[in-house]
Specification:
single chain; mainly alpha; three-stranded antiparallel sheet; 12 helices
């Protein structure tokens, strides 16, 4: 287990450095308010420095380094690297020293702070749902006040996401957590599930707040400030059902038609998305599998301490040794629980968020292709003179501008998203690797303090071999 875990971290963290694609894309546009173009609103790490070693999407994470077995849910333990090259005794972690470096001179330009907290259950005769308190603090002049407090349910978040996609079809909208939980996960409205969703909704809003364009969207402002009845009234101002159905039918027709010649840079982008989706889904499955096995191992290990205590009561000659083993197991349990906490809070949410991002990216590419397909259809109609040429010429001119704006928006947002993705995944895996180093630093010294003879040392070493 230890070899697979650390090796998987190293391989995936190395792959994170290559999760990039070389392309001639424009830099993201600067926002007028000075908001940083970072990612997670305080929860997700980000940075402005590019990562070295971004050599292409094909080197994202080589699939052949993983040994897959269909009988084990396509996952099997695999040795990805030689652990003998690392010493288990590391009094001081290099990452710990690096993380101590702070840049005190960097100004904080953030002017919109959002907190999602205090989930509350609501039970009606029709349904049961959860609302979340959203507190917004801002210094922006376009807001009527400096602080707002509202309550929103999941459907309200879903409405906001849909409106952002309508207003900005080729910008990368942050993903929402799934509406329905995956089979085998915690039950709906379980405390753990609610807390996990709350954190995801908090990240969703803060990623929008940190986006140079989405942060100034009017629907976003209404979502943060309007009371419940005001929000309901604002929702009714959107396009009607028939209009939405017409747009959906037209979008389906254009997607079926396809585009004749997608620009090369978007072909590369699409290829990257397909490979990224495969690799990040694989990493997500492996991470979930490791966490499940760690949980089973932890639950089993918790039973060994009390057993050794009971055993010591009936073995006077081995009483001290057995109590020492029990104490060692107890400390290993605490260290393992801490490591599992880091895994479930720091790594798993980040990986799964980018699984959802991969689905969002596919949707963005489809919407870009639909805009281009609409232009292609008008050009064909003009060529065959099937309609009024003057009217078609005017429509083509507008569509050409629309395609150019859509392409420029996607290219700029793509570079920004790619940088955030690299920073987030690299930080998550390096933090988790450091957590594992601390775990082994602690557990390596527990056993020997109880040994005073060869027999005791062998017993402790055997225990370590099992717990490590």
């Amino acid at each position: 287990m230890g070899t697979l875990w650390v090796a998987g971290l190293a391989a995936a963290a190395g792959g994170a450095r290559t999760l990039g694609m070389e392309g001639d894309c424009r830099a993201p546009q600067a926002r007028s308010s000075g908001l940083p173009a970072g990612g997670g609103g305080g929860e997700s790490p980000g940075g402005d420095a590019p990562l070295p070693g971004s050599s292409g999407s094909s080197s994202l994470l080589q699939a052949e380094v993983l040994d897959l077995d269909e009988d084990e849910d396509d996952l099997e333990d695999a040795s990805l690297m030689d652990m003998n090259s690392f010493s288990p005794v590391m009094p001081t972690s290099p990452l710990s020293m690096i993380n101590q470096v702070k840049f005190e001179d960097e100004p904080d330009l953030k002017d919109l702070f959002i907190t999602v907290d205090e989930p509350e259950s609501h039970v009606t005769t029709i349904e049961t749902f959860i609302t979340y308190r959203i507190i917004t603090k801002t210094s922006r002049g376009e807001f009527d006040s400096s602080e707002f407090e509202v309550r929103r349910r999941y459907q309200d978040f879903l409405w906001l996401k849909e409106r952002l996609e309508e207003a900005h079809p080729t910008l990368i909208i942050p993903p929402l957590p799934e509406k329905f939980i995956v089979k085998g996960m915690v039950e709906r409205f379980n405390d753990d599930f609610i807390e996990t969703r709350r954190k995801a909704l908090h990240k969703f809003l803060n990623r929008i707040a940190d986006h140079p364009t989405l942060t100034f969207n009017e629907d976003f402002k209404v979502f943060l400030t309007a009371q419940a009845w005001e929000l309901s009234s604002h929702k009714k101002q959107g396009p009607g059902l028939l209009s939405r159905m017409g747009q959906t039918v037209r979008a389906v027709a254009l997607s079926m038609r396809g585009v004749k010649s997608r620009p090369e840079e978007f072909m590369e982008m699409n290829n990257f998305i397909e490979i990224f989706s495969q690799k990040i889904n694989l990493i997500d499955k492996i991470s979930q599998r490791i966490y499940k096995e760690e949980r089973e191992y932890f639950d089993e290990m918790k039973e060994y301490g009390p057993i050794h205590i009971l055993w010591s009561a009936s073995e006077e000659d081995l009483a001290d040794t057995l109590k020492g083993v029990a104490s060692c197991i107890d400390k290993c349990c605490k260290a393992t629980e801490k490591r599992m906490s880091g895994l479930s809070e720091a790594l798993l949410p980040v990986v799964h968020e980018y699984v959802l991002y991969s689905e969002m990216l596919m949707g963005v590419m489809k919407r870009r292709d639909q805009i281009q397909a609409e232009l292609d259809s008008k050009v064909e109609a003009l060529t065959s003179k099937k309609a009024d040429t003057d009217l078609l010429t005017e429509e083509i001119g507008k569509l050409e501008d629309k395609v150019e704006c859509a392409n420029n928006a996607l290219k700029a947002d793509w570079e920004r998203w790619k940088q955030n993705m690299q920073n987030d995944i690299k930080s998550a895996f390096t933090d988790m690797a450091e957590e594992n180093i601390h775990y082994y630093e602690q557990t390596i010294y527990y056993g020997p303090i109880y040994s005073s003879c060869k027999e005791k040392e062998e017993m402790i070493q055997n225990t370590h071999a099992h717990t490590a």
